[in-house]
UniProtKB/TrEMBL annotation:
Its EC number is 4.3.2.1. The lineage of its organism: Eukaryota, Viridiplantae, Streptophyta, Embryophyta, Tracheophyta. The keyword Lyase applies. Gene3D superfamilies: Fumarase/aspartase (C-terminal domain), Fumarase/aspartase (Central domain), Fumarase/aspartase (N-terminal domain). GO terms for molecular function: argininosuccinate lyase activity. Residues 8-302 form the Fumarate lyase N-terminal domain. Keywords: Amino-acid biosynthesis, Arginine biosynthesis, Lyase. Residues 365-433 form the Argininosuccinate lyase C-terminal domain. GO terms for cellular component: cytosol. It catalyses: 2-(N(omega)-L-arginino)succinate = fumarate + L-arginine. GO terms for biological process: L-arginine biosynthetic process via ornithine. It comes from Hibiscus trionum. Belongs to the lyase 1 family. Argininosuccinate lyase subfamily. Pathway: Amino-acid biosynthesis; L-arginine biosynthesis; L-arginine from L-ornithine and carbamoyl phosphate: step 3/3. This is argininosuccinate lyase.
């Protein structure tokens, strides 16, 4: 067996069971690019500070480039006995360039190294997720553009409430996703500080320049406190919290679309290309992608809970428990990106069933609140209007008709202020036209929203 990089004081090698249990190379090799980036910045800084020679720096940089090439070509052999990505790369570098490689770990610990890698990795992951969010927003706005003017029932308590433009409803999702992107970008700004040079926990007496490495790696500044730098994982907790909120938003879209695709609603028809069938029931066509979006939100939330639980009992500073921070993070990122991608795919492959929706609209007295507003405009206090319209609805229920079918006489029996102009407020088409408040489902308000998103997302 090869002696470990930390093997000096050890007389026995670790057992196979311990080696297998403690390794992280099987998953942290994903950090290789950021590990190499960090090592290159570190080596350049060591040379600038006179801690290694320029020629030592050059062999380190050249060796690291070669290692990156061989990893990307699939030639690099990851060794479990070398424990993690940091020691795999350092040991391979030593195999390759010899003595200079032994100076690379000067004024560095794996504790600050892993966090440098991880923060850089999260920074890139955030950019990828934000790009996927933008892509879904664009798909939703395009879906809205395709369905201009379509009115659908709006629900509260999953009971028919008021008529809304489909565009308005789709843009509600676009708004939610925009805050999701905002949360990620806030998180990115907060995590973008450099732990490198914090070393094990206390810093170092060697004359390093943490500002130089921070700059070279695109961090805003070095972290002020070395103990904090190696101890905390709040940046990942924040990241996974933001991911969990995204997942919950997507799960709600999933639920809505699964309902809409049901025979009972029948509002949308997903194309075959985004549906799957049943192994026993030949007639089935199921909206599985969106069901799985709903389902996978559980994983993303679970990943956050894993990390919260991981951190809650830890004393300062680094503890090996923290190695468990990576898999949930990788899983959360991969899952959220998949959910965003498939939701966009689904949005591009559904059609709204205008006919079916139009037939569904008359039921449920969606215009009742607009009728109450009519009475308010005639000077009736709202509470009284509410009661008058409530009694109008009861009359319709007994006559098995809609509000617009009531005769003026019928209505006047409930309030003398009803006039012929009342019919301009009744029926969903009329009702939608009456909305005018900022942010409402009124035609102009929604057109303004569409205009805002088309410009913001640069849709043409
Ligand atoms: N693989 C470790 C992790 O992910 C790297 C840091 C290990 N440090 C140590 N002293 N054992 O956390």
């Amino acid at each position: 067996k090869e002696t470990k990089l930390w093997g000096g004081r050890f007389e026995e090698s670790v057992t196979d069971i311990v080696e297998k249990f403690t390794e992280s190379i099987s998953f942290d090799k994903q950090l290789y690019k950021h590990d190499i980036m960090g090592s290159k910045a570190h080596a350049s800084m060591l040379a600038q500070q006179g801690l290694i020679s320029l020629s030592e720096r050059d062999s380190i940089l050249k060796g690291l480039d070669e290692i990156q090439r061989s990893i990307e070509a699939g030639e690099f052999v990851w060794r479990t006995d070398r424990e993690d990505v940091h020691m795999n790369i350092e040991a391979a570098l030593t195999d390759m360039v010899g003595e200079p490689a032994k100076k690379l770990h000067t004024a560095r610990s794996r504790n600050d190294q892993v966090l440098t890698d991880f923060r850089l990795w999260c920074r890139d992951a955030i950019d990828s997720i934000v790009a996927s969010i933008r892509n879904l927003q664009v798909a939703l706005v395009k879906l809205a553009l395709k369905n201009e003017g379509l009115i659908i029932p709006g629900y509260t308590h999953l009971q028919r409430a008021q008529p809304v433009l489909l565009q308005h409803l789709l843009l509600a999702f676009v708004e939610q996703l925009d805050r999701d992107a905002g949360r990620l970008l806030d998180c990115k700004a907060r995590l973008n500080f450099s732990p490198l040079g914090a070393c094990a926990l206390a810093g170092t007496g060697l004359p390093i320049d943490r500002f130089m490495t921070s700059n070279a790696l695109g961090f805003t500044a070095p972290m002020r406190n070395s103990i904090d730098a190696v101890s905390d994982r709040d940046f990942v907790l924040e990241f996974l919290s933001a991911n969990s909120i995204i997942a919950v938003h997507l799960s709600r879209i999933g639920e809505e679309w699964v309902l809409w695709a049901s025979e009972e609603f029948g509002f949308i028809t997903p194309s075959d290309s985004v549906s799957t069938g049943s192994s026993i029931m030949p007639q089935k066509k199921n909206p599985d992608p969106m069901e799985l979006v709903r389902g996978k939100s559980a994983r993303v939330i679970g990943d956050l809970v894993t990390l919260l639980t991981l951190c809650k009992g830890l004393p300062l500073a680094y503890n090996r428990d923290l190695q468990e921070d990576k898999e949930p993070t990788f899983d959360s990122v991969k899952t959220v990106i998949g959910m965003l991608e498939v939701s966009a795919e689904f949005a591009q492959n559904i059609t709204f069933n205008d006919e079916r929706i139009r037939k569904a609209l008359p039921a449920g007295y969606l215009d009742a609140t607009t009728l109450a507003d009519y009475l308010v405009k005639k000077g009736i206090p709202f509470r009284t209007s509410h009661d008058i319209v409530g009694r109008s609805v009861a009359l319709c229920v007994s006559k098995n008709c809609q509000l617009q079918d009531l005769s003026l006489e019928d209505m006047r029996s409930l309030s003398p202020v009803f006039d012929n102009d009342v019919y301009e407020f009744l029926g969903v088409e009329n009702a939608v036209k009456k909305f005018s408040s900022y942010g409402s489902t009124g035609l102009e308000c929604v057109a303004d929203q569409i205009g805002y998103w088309v410009a913001k997302l640069e849709i043409n």
